[in-house]
Structure formats: C-alpha cells, structure tokens
C-alpha cells in the first residue's frame, strides 16, 4: 500500500487512518491501524521518509500523518501476501487536501505495479471512507502499501 501526496498549493495535506482488507469469501478483514504505535514514530516494520509519522489528538485515536502545509512524506508497509482467487476490497479512512492525482494510499505489487489507488477528490479535515475492489488472481501475490504526500502549500496534510 502506498499513500502519496504530490500536490502543491492550497489544501495540500493528508492523514490516513485504519486500512482494511476484506476477503470475499470468507469475509475476514485484515485491519492495519496505528493505535499501538507511539506518537511521532514510524509504524513498526514500515519505512517512513520526510515528515511521515503517527500522530493523534488524544480523542479520536491515532493516524498516519504524512505531512502538513510545506512538509511532505511517504510511508511504506512491509510486504503482505494476497491469496489467489479471492476478491478483496481495500478500504481506508483519508482526510486532507491532497486531492491531486498521485497523492493517496496505494496497493502495489512487489515490483511497483499499482493494484489499487485510494485518493480523495475533495479538500476536507473530515476522515472519509475510500475503497476499491481488487480482483482475484490465479496466483498469490506479494504486495505492499505505500502512502504518499508530495503536495506542499496551504492545506497540505
């Protein structure tokens, strides 16, 4: 999974909360959240660049903060195996002004090919659900998540 913020100017920001994969069938979710990660650190086994780190306001839980205004960052998960012949839905809660293409959360194959892109079309401080369906494959695939924010300027988070 790759979250990217690549836009500059007003509303350039991105926050990522709970990422979930649901397999159909069986409908057993794999949930990636940041509640057990210390504030101002990169999630365990993830690779973070720039200003990417876990943040939280003490009331609504913790989230992955990729940057704010003139700060940018990326966060890349460890590899996961997607099983073969299983349809999967990837869902994430996103907020911010990173509404330009190339800023968001992405599921990529181990060689960098995009399988799923989660991007917000609007500028908002409210976390909103974004999802995509991942078709089954004849063989299991090694994948990773990458969150990216490259946008700078007002509302860059």
Task: Describe the 3D structure.
This protein has 157 residues and is mainly beta. Helices cover 0% and strands 52% of the residues. It is globular, with a radius of gyration of 15 Å. The model is unreliable at 1-6 (pLDDT under 50).
Give a topology summary:
Layout: E1 2-4, E2 13-24, E3 29-32, E4 47-50, E5 53-56, E6 62-68, E7 73-76, E8 80-82, E9 87-96, E10 104-109, E11 114-118, E12 124-134, E13 141-149
Parallel strand pairs: 1-13
Antiparallel strand pairs: 1-10, 2-3, 2-6, 2-9, 4-7, 5-6, 7-13, 8-13, 9-12, 10-11, 10-13
Which features would summarize this protein structure in a list?
157 residues; mainly beta; 6-stranded antiparallel sheet; 13 strands; 0% helix; globular
> What is the H/E string?
EEEEEEEEEEEEE
Q: How large is the radius of gyration? A: 15 Å
Secondary structure: number of strands: 13
Q: Helix amount, in percent?
A: under 10%
Contiguous low-pLDDT stretches (5 residues minimum) are 1-6
Largest sheet: 7 strands, mixed
User: Structural class of the secondary elements?
Assistant: mainly beta
Proportion of residues in extended strands: over 45%
How would you summarize what this structure contains?
The protein is mostly beta strands and 157 residues long.
């Amino acid at each position: 999974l790759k979250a990217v913020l690549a836009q500059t100017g007003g509303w350039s920001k991105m926050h990522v909360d709970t990422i979930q994969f649901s397999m159909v069938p069986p409908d057993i979710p794999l949930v990636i959240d940041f509640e057990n990660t210390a504030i101002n650190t990169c999630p365990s086994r993830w690779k973070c660049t720039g200003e990417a780190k876990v943040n939280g306001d003490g009331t609504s839980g913790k989230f992955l903060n990729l940057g704010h205004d003139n700060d940018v960052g990326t966060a890349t998960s460890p590899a996961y195996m997607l099983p073969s012949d299983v349809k999967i839905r990837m869902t994430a809660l996103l907020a911010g002004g990173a509404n330009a293409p190339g800023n968001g959360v992405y599921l990529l194959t181990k060689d960098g090919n995009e399988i799923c892109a989660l991007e917000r079309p609007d500028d908002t401080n409210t976390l909103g659900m974004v999802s995509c369906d991942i078709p089954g494959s004849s063989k299991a695939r090694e994948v990773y998540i990458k969150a990216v924010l490259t946008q700078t300027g007002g509302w860059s988070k």
